[in-house]
């Protein structure tokens, strides 16, 4: 389960595009923060998560948040200000597990590495989807977790929602605010669509309007169980109440739970900040991102690198700087990375959430707000790449020390 949202420059407080996503995965699936510079490739092939595909000559610089063991990414930004988040969606198109394809995370990273605009990235994803399909396991320990994907794709000027079912797809433009969750939403209101003839489940016999992408392909059972409509309404409704949304608003939106007196032990799939409770609610939010994409000046990519936004800080990262740090690269088991250190800290908070989390959040909000103000100051003063790098590293170290203390 995941949630992704965007506000176009025409309505934000800064006149910059703002984008946010929570990545909901299996609770012990650590999430890494990665930086890859622009590269010229000599090799002709590229090994993705399960299959190899032809490599392109040049790939763009990217900042990614990804499951530690996957090639693809849950969310990320490239040097041209293209930003993408994906969602698992559940459809009535059958999976051919013998004809392995690309994961949604592969498609996301490939779109970032190869697209200079949102539209270019969208077209990259569509070509690869048609060529290789998406018959790929998206789970970690759960090797039976297969799903199709939707994407929110944006750049400094515009944004698109792309939904898929097998090799079928439809996309539409975002007008001012956009939000997606774990369900198909595009009816007949698409800019373009392609309906592929593929084997489908028995649910397809009950599909409605043949021109509606949602009614043609949606799996009602899994979509309903995931409460995607509830969560999409929550994020969209939250942002619609903000006259001119800002970074702080996006962070607050991604920290939401489904009840005022929230109890993690009774959490449901209706939460934006997800807390796993068992079979019917198996996911934690294992990483979160908010990005401010500037037309003039460096973009800021705010990433937690940790689970649970409600118990996390967002660290600023910038392009053109080295991000090499063992703290950002967790492994399979508990280690000294930021992600696992936070997991240990959060476990102690969860033992008495109603007492500890509000006190912690009050103090940490002050730190987060000070970082946001410092970022604004640095951008306003046209800070050098070195100055931005020093600030990013200082925030990372401050976060690390808070978790240890």
Topology:
Elements: E1 2-7, E2 17-25, E3 31-36, E4 39-40, E5 45-47, E6 52-54, E7 58-59, E8 62-67, E9 75-78, E10 83-89, H1 104-114, H2 118-132, E11 148-154, E12 159-165, E13 168-173, E14 177-180, E15 192-194, H3 213-217, H4 220-225, H5 228-240, H6 247-254, E16 284-293, E17 300-303, E18 315-317, H7 338-350, H8 353-380, H9 385-404
Antiparallel strand pairs: 1-2, 1-14, 2-16, 3-8, 4-7, 5-6, 8-9, 9-10, 10-11, 11-12, 12-13, 13-15, 16-17, 17-18
Helix pairs in contact: 1-2, 5-6, 7-9
Which residues form runs of ≥5 with pLDDT under 50? none
Task: Decide which structural class fits the backbone.
Answer: alpha+beta
Helix percent band: 25-40%
Q: How much is the average pLDDT?
A: 95
Alpha carbon gap, first and last residue: 32 Å
Beta-strand percent range = 15-25%
Strand order of the largest sheet: 3-8-9-10-11-12-13-15
At the fourth level of CATH, the homologous superfamily is: Penicillin V Acylase, Chain A
- The assigned CATH architecture is 4-Layer Sandwich
- Give the SSE string: EEEEEEEEEEHHEEEEEHHHHEEEHHH
What does this structure look like?
Helix content is 29%, strand content 23%. It is α+β, with helices and mostly antiparallel strands. It has one domain (2-404): Penicillin V Acylase, Chain A. The strands form four sheets. It has an eight-stranded antiparallel sheet with strand order 3-8-9-10-11-12-13-15, with helices on one face. The chain has a six-stranded antiparallel sheet with strand order 14-1-2-16-17-18. β9 (75-78) and β10 (83-89) form a beta hairpin. α1 (104-114) crosses α2 and α5 packs antiparallel against α6. The longest helix has 28 residues, at 353-380.
């Amino acid at each position: 389960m995941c949630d992704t949202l965007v506000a176009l420059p025409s309505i934000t407080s800064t006149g910059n595009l703002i984008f946010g996503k929570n990545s909901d995965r299996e609770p012990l699936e650590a999430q890494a923060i990665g930086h890859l510079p622009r590269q010229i490739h000599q090799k002709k092939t590229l090994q993705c998560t399960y299959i190899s595909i032809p490599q392109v000559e040049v790939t763009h610089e990217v900042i990614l948040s990804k499951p530690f063991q996957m090639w693809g990414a849950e969310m990320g930004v490239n040097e041209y200000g293209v930003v993408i988040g994906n969602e698992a969606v559940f459809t009535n198109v059958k999976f051919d597990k013998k004809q392995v394809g690309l994961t949604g995370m592969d498609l996301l990273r490939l779109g970032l590495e190869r697209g200079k605009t949102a539209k270019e990235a969208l077209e990259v994803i569509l070509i690869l989807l048609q060529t290789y399909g998406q018959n790929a396991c998206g789970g970690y320990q759960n090797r039976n977790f297969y799903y199709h994907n939707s994407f929110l794709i944006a750049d400094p000027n515009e944004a698109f929602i792309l939904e898929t079912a097998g090799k079928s797809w439809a996309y539409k433009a975002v007008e001012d605010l956009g939000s997606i969750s774990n369900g198909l939403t595009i009816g007949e209101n698409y800019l373009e669509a392609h309906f592929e003839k593929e084997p489908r489940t028995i649910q397809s016999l009950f599909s409605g309007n043949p021109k509606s992408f949602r009614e043609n392909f949606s799996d009602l059972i899994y979509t309903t169980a995931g409460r995607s409509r509830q969560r999409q309404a929550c994020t969209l409704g939250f942002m619609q109440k903000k006259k001119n949304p800002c970074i702080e608003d996006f962070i607050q939106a991604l920290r939401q739970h489904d009840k005022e007196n929230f109890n993690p032990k009774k959490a449901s799939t209706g939460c934006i900040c997800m807390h796993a409770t068992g079979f019917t609610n198996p996911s934690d939010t294992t990483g979160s991102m908010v990005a401010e994409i500037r037309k003039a000046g460096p973009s800021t990519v705010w990433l937690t690198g940790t689970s649970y936004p409600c118990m996390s800080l967002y660290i600023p990262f910038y392009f053109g700087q080295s991000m090499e740090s063992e703290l950002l690269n967790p492994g399979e088991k508990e280690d000294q990375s930021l992600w696992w250190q936070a997991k240990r800290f959060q476990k102690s908070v969860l033992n008495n959430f109603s007492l500890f989390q509000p006190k912690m959040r009050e103090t940490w909000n002050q730190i987060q707000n000070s970082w946001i103000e410092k970022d604004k100051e640095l951008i306003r003063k046209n800070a050098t790449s070195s100055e931005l790098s020093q600030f990013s590293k200082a925030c990372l170290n401050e976060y690390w020390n808070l978790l240890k203390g």
